[in-house]
């Protein structure tokens, strides 16, 4: 087959390093900051410094993105990691073109603090650029405790820009987390990292996504998670229900067969016709989150704030 576009670039990507189970490659990128169409997200632009993610979550919806590179084995997404080729001046040029009223999300497809970040520091380099600008609005989403490495930079960014950080935590149960998110830091490490950030004044919240029917969706489990989030400084708490499409669907159903075999037939039936469970299930989960937020005094979303070194005249550009 004649490879084109991103698939051709991936095949030609120079190898940075190959470990026993994971290889890292350099991938040229035409654009760092991508426009997000539609209004259902609280951001207008996205940045994903890596393709693939070694954390290997069974439910990871981004697995399909490796198929753009003709990498179709289920394990390719978590074992063939691509680090985009960094270029500070090009990144800065792109950033300068983004209207300051529009939010930029880091980590919408893959985790910006995944293991590769310890070696290649692409997220850190972005923060170094963000720390030199003011008046922007940034969202970071991660399942890692690595943001603590960048605490000083995050504080600089948050002093001059609006910065929110989402920690994704699906369960407090370390055994369940190990099965669901085999190579992610434990929930306790993520909570501790969030506490470090919140104590330094960084606004953080917990996203309990995905909610998995029959696995992590009981009221006591979600309430306990929200209470821990609150104790560790979270300002908001939310979550969305599992979305399942191929190739993630096959990976997740295989995980169910091994770890929750009794649930496999119900998931098969539920996700046979649709990529989501019923509207009724969504409504019940929404109501459950509302009740838990009321009980724990956590917000549904981040509330606007004025950074101390905010560029004069920019506050009115925040969405009200
Ligand atoms: S941390 Fe996020 S991007 Fe990485 S595998 Fe898990 S869900 Fe996917």
What do you see in this structure?
The longest helix has 18 residues, at 279-296. The chain has a domain at 1-207: pyruvate-formate lyase- activating enzyme. The protein contains twelve helices and eleven strands. The mean pLDDT is 93. It is globular. Helix 9 packs across helix 12 (279-296) and helix 10 packs antiparallel against helix 11 (264-273). By secondary structure, it is an alpha/beta fold. It has a seven-stranded mixed sheet, with helices on one face. The chain has helices spanning 5-12, 76-79, 88-97, 116-120, 122-130, 151-160, 174-180, 187-199, 219-231, 248-259, 264-273, 279-296; strands at residues 15-18, 23-27, 34-35, 45-47, 50-51, 80-84, 104-106, 137-142, 162-168, 203-207, 236-238. Iron/sulfur cluster binds at residues 53, 55-57, 60, 62, 110-111, 114, 143, 181, 184.
Give me a quick take on this structure.
This protein is an alpha/beta fold and 320 residues long. 37% of the residues lie in helices and 14% in strands. It has helices at 5-12, 76-79, 88-97, 116-120, 122-130, 151-160, 174-180, 187-199, 219-231, 248-259, 264-273, 279-296; strands at 15-18, 23-27, 34-35, 45-47, 50-51, 80-84, 104-106, 137-142, 162-168, 203-207, 236-238.
